[in-house]
Amino acid sequence: MPVRRPPHILALLTLPTLVACGQEAPQGPPPPSAESLAAIADDGGAPHDPLGRAIDALFDPEAVGETDALVVMKRGSVIVERYGADVKPETRLTGWGMSQCVTALMIGQLVSDGRLRLNESAPVPEWQRPGDPRGEITLKQLLQMRSGLRHVEDRAPGTGSVSRESDRMRLTFLDERDDMAAYAESQPLEAPAGQSFENSSATPIILADLAARVLAPDRDPARRRRAVGDYLRNRVLAPIGMDSTMVEYDRAGTMIGASMIHADARDWAKLGEFLRHRGSVKGAQILPRRWIQFMLAPSPRNEAYGAGVWLNHAPAGDEARLYPGTAPANLFACIGEYGQYVIGSPDQLLTVVRLGASNAGQERTVHDRLGVLIALFPGGKP
């Protein structure tokens, strides 16, 4: 027999339905795009739809500018790969400041061969004159960005643009581009050698010049280019598998080791894998393990920087370049201007590459969204 309820009880029972009819149902996050879902060959243990949305976030042109490539490797295999318009997997993309990592690897091979010495005065002839305080600068101090040489790196104050007066602009595009090392090595000290940190795009140019001096002592530009190119290819790039890599030189035959190294996205990922594996490829030790340990050890004047590589620490009084406190402590990155990243996370067995063109405001968004993507994978907590 049906239960009979008083009319006011029946009215109360219908109230939730009436309210629901008058309100919009709560909406969840949007589904990932078809492009991002197609980019995921394997989620690597990350939640699938959030991973797709994280990929989409890195291809949002208003927020991050132009993303040309995103590659994620897990356990040595590519699990995510997506490209921007008119960019193909074989397209060479400029590393900008990430090129410094490659330069540091070349210097490591020369040190391993006994042709340069880490803790001795950097062999720049002009610095060896009696009474010149620059003779105190060691190769190690150059690699750790604590030479003390005068340098103006950055953007014009209060703008998102690089100042035309910056050394980076002058060396790369303006009056000092023909013989970059001569300009970089002519600068006086503004601090005692070894005593202060300053990120300097002139320093990898000096390091590239030192490589050329020992490989082609006669200073002929063509021979310098050939000697450095052969050495870099045979001792660093080919063993790593970075076969697409192209290097640019100035008119004096000095490798532009601060910025002008180009490779496809998968080859940039191989660089991260090489560092993550401490200088070995498929079990073969290409560079001494101790050299990679040196590159990934904090500089005495900035614990967030090693040697050509940024580390997951917060420098005093500065904005962290990576994710201290929210990602594994041994995470590291090669970072370039305009939002270039090769990020390695040994604890997560992960390498992430983003290449593109972002302005100063968008660069921070790229940084933050890469952090979100990395945190999706297992082991992402510090």
What does this structure look like?
By secondary structure, this protein is of the alpha+beta class. The chain folds into two domains: 31-94 and 312-382, Beta-Lactamase, CATH 3.30.450; 96-259, DD-peptidase/beta-lactamase superfamily (Beta-lactamase), CATH 3.40.710. It has helices spanning 7-22, 34-39, 48-57, 61-64, 99-112, 139-143, 167-172, 180-185, 202-215, 221-240, 265-276, 289-295, 360-375; strands spanning 66-74, 77-83, 93-94, 246-247, 261-263, 280-281, 284-285, 310-311, 332-336, 340-345, 350-357. The strands form three sheets. Strands 2-1-11-10-9-8 form a six-stranded antiparallel β-sheet. Strand 10 (340-345) and strand 11 form a beta hairpin. Helix 3 runs antiparallel to helix 13 (360-375) and helix 5 runs parallel beside helix 9. The radius of gyration is 25 Å and the shape is globular.
What's the topology here?
Elements: H1 7-22, H2 34-39, H3 48-57, H4 61-64, E1 66-74, E2 77-83, E3 93-94, H5 99-112, H6 139-143, H7 167-172, H8 180-185, H9 202-215, H10 221-240, E4 246-247, E5 261-263, H11 265-276, E6 280-281, E7 284-285, H12 289-295, E8 310-311, E9 332-336, E10 340-345, E11 350-357, H13 360-375
Antiparallel strand pairs: 1-2, 1-11, 3-5, 4-5, 6-7, 8-9, 9-10, 10-11
